[in-house]
Amino acid sequence: MVAKQEQTTTYTAKVTGRHAVTLPAKLCRTLGIENGDTVEFDVTGNQAVVRKTPVVDANDLRGILKPYFRDWDDAVAFLEEERSSWERPNEPDDAS
């Protein structure tokens, strides 16, 4: 059995002085990219592959930290401990 090869289509876009690229409308239609969507670029050597960033449904994330924390209070305690270790920029003294 021979695998069917997908046809390659090449699109051209111009890079502006601010390094912005306007994606061709036909490419956007092909990839289902709409105004406000985010795209990703995978770069290998001197080639880049562009694709629409998949949308993650927040419900799909439910429970992913369950193996790491006993309960909600345990997770909150961990976050508070981590945040207390962060370096903060010099803050003005309240004693002025």
Provide an overview of this structure:
- Strand 1 and strand 2 form a beta hairpin.
- By secondary structure, the protein is α+β, with helices and mostly antiparallel strands.
- The protein has two helices and two strands, in the order H-E-E-H.
- The model has no long low-confidence stretch (mean pLDDT 88).
Task: Set out the fold topology.
Layout: H1 25-31, E1 39-44, E2 47-52, H2 72-85
Antiparallel strand pairs: 1-2
The total count of strands amounts to 2
- The Rg value, from CA coordinates, equals 23 Å
Largest sheet: number of strands, sense, barrel closure: 2 strands, antiparallel
Q: Mean of the pLDDT scores?
A: 88
**Helix proportion:** 10-25%
Estimate the strand proportion: 5-15%
Attribute tags:
96 residues; alpha+beta; two-stranded antiparallel sheet; 2 strands; 22% helix; 12% strand; extended
Short description:
This protein has 96 residues and is an alpha+beta fold. The protein is built from two helices and two strands, in the order H-E-E-H.
